[in-house]
Amino acid sequence: MKWQQALTDYRLYLQIERGLSKNSIANYSYDIKKLISYLEEHSIYTSPISIDNEVVKQFIYSISKSINPRSQARLISGLRNFFDYLIFEKYRTNNPLDLIESPRIGRKLPDTLSIEDIDNLVKTIDLSYQYNGINLGERNRAIIETLYSCGLRVSELINLKLSDLFFDEGFIKVTGKGDKQRFVPIGSTTQNYINIWKTIRNHIDVKPNSKDILFLNYKGNKLTRAMIFTIIKKLVEKSGLNKNVSPHTFRHSFATHLLENGADLRAIQMMLGHESITTTEIYMHIDRSHLSEVLNKFHPRK
Q: What is the pTM of this model?
């Protein structure tokens, strides 16, 4: 079995058997491609079936000089999963990463914005901004409000459809990782901003493959992940906010603010679309002062 064939088979396994998203499959593939590039660069002629622990160890050592411990740990995990797949398919009997330890890393707490930060960012948006006669300022406000008020991932935002909006019921249907769908509540303020954008959207010549997509560029195409990052970056610079803000920051802020105001962790898990509640539990570590306030307020022996 050659590397490219093994990679193709593995990608199909991730898509069909594990139901992973395109982004997740791309990340897993990237780890393997790095290993393949290393082998080609150093003229190491081996196959995915015969590669041994020593070669993999040399690869990880070489790459550790250019990536941080967290990225190194992710790469090791990705390669370990790949070789576990080969064992599962009976191409190998052992995993060359079994004796390789991942670097110890602390649990990274997500960055968050305060409610005041978010209000200031929204106020910074120029609602009169137009390009080619299309008001993109109103679109950008609807994007920011939807990211924050619904706690969406950036991939979920750009793939949100008109047919996913159930405003009469107060929900939107979100397609998350592994194409798993969930219903997320949406407030009246965000509904109003989206409806304003929908009116503007009606005047765009929408491309055939984007007819049902909610957020579009002025050409009528679906927005890219990179475009959402760019919109947020420019907005943060304009507002003078001295924080590192990405689309995911709004998602983290959504969960944090819900928790701080007494929301149930299980409900937050369902709204975020976390498969395991242990993923959601990271928000329990963000604001220890808030937890102390809860204890002092509600515990009988405070």
A: 0.65
